[in-house]
């Protein structure tokens, strides 16, 4: 049974979907803790599912590196097999990435390497793309540039807004994340090899 720590910044809709999936007795993973860099709304999902949570508030640290060190310490308390960035809207400093790799993965609402960064859905629309997608990657020192574990195309419809397109990407993102976690647990995906 894989031990997962999930890190969030916002409402945690992907976290909730993962917690629901982990409730399935046949799913080979469980969330042991949820962490956040602020008082994120998504922490209510952890409470609802009886999962412990922790805060490492970014403003309390003088540097991003000091915050990263504290975050790694807080994560390691839970001895996770995999750490998932699920809407954590803050780049981890390189030392934190190195400390948590190769079991550090992220979901992204685009078909990487297309449209990396915080505004992937908007960027796809502004570029006039006819399709975008969802991806799950191993986190590296770049912005959404790590090894790709899974990705899938999602069409862009003529009348799509940023909200409607994102709403169609999210279920794909959630399914891919669950598939990757299952693959890691079953040995079909080797994070050491991917990283």
From TrEMBL:
<feature type="site" description="Raises pKa of active site His">
    <location>
        <position position="144"/>
    </location>
</feature>
<dbReference type="GO" id="GO:0004644">
    <property type="term" value="F:phosphoribosylglycinamide formyltransferase activity"/>
</dbReference>
<feature type="binding site">
    <location>
        <begin position="12"/>
        <end position="14"/>
    </location>
    <ligand>
        <name>N(1)-(5-phospho-beta-D-ribosyl)glycinamide</name>
    </ligand>
</feature>
<dbReference type="GO" id="GO:0006189">
    <property type="term" value="P:'de novo' IMP biosynthetic process"/>
</dbReference>
<dbReference type="GO" id="GO:0005829">
    <property type="term" value="C:cytosol"/>
</dbReference>
<feature type="binding site">
    <location>
        <begin position="89"/>
        <end position="92"/>
    </location>
    <ligand>
        <name>(6R)-10-formyltetrahydrofolate</name>
    </ligand>
</feature>
<keyword id="KW-0658">Purine biosynthesis</keyword>
<comment type="pathway">
    <text>Purine metabolism; IMP biosynthesis via de novo pathway; N(2)-formyl-N(1)-(5-phospho-D-ribosyl)glycinamide from N(1)-(5-phospho-D-ribosyl)glycinamide (10-formyl THF route): step 1/1.</text>
</comment>
<dbReference type="InterPro" id="IPR002376">
    <property type="entry name" value="Formyl_transf_N"/>
</dbReference>
<feature type="active site" description="Proton donor">
    <location>
        <position position="108"/>
    </location>
</feature>
<protein>
    <recommendedName>
        <fullName>Phosphoribosylglycinamide formyltransferase</fullName>
        <ecNumber>2.1.2.2</ecNumber>
    </recommendedName>
</protein>
<dbReference type="InterPro" id="IPR004607">
    <property type="entry name" value="GART"/>
</dbReference>
<comment type="function">
    <text>Catalyzes the transfer of a formyl group from 10-formyltetrahydrofolate to 5-phospho-ribosyl-glycinamide (GAR), producing 5-phospho-ribosyl-N-formylglycinamide (FGAR) and tetrahydrofolate.</text>
</comment>
<dbReference type="Pfam" id="PF00551">
    <property type="entry name" value="Formyl_trans_N"/>
</dbReference>
<comment type="similarity">
    <text>Belongs to the GART family.</text>
</comment>
<keyword id="KW-0808">Transferase</keyword>
<feature type="domain" description="Formyl transferase N-terminal">
    <location>
        <begin position="3"/>
        <end position="181"/>
    </location>
</feature>
<feature type="binding site">
    <location>
        <position position="106"/>
    </location>
    <ligand>
        <name>(6R)-10-formyltetrahydrofolate</name>
    </ligand>
</feature>
<dbReference type="InterPro" id="IPR036477">
    <property type="entry name" value="Formyl_transf_N_sf"/>
</dbReference>
<feature type="binding site">
    <location>
        <position position="64"/>
    </location>
    <ligand>
        <name>(6R)-10-formyltetrahydrofolate</name>
    </ligand>
</feature>
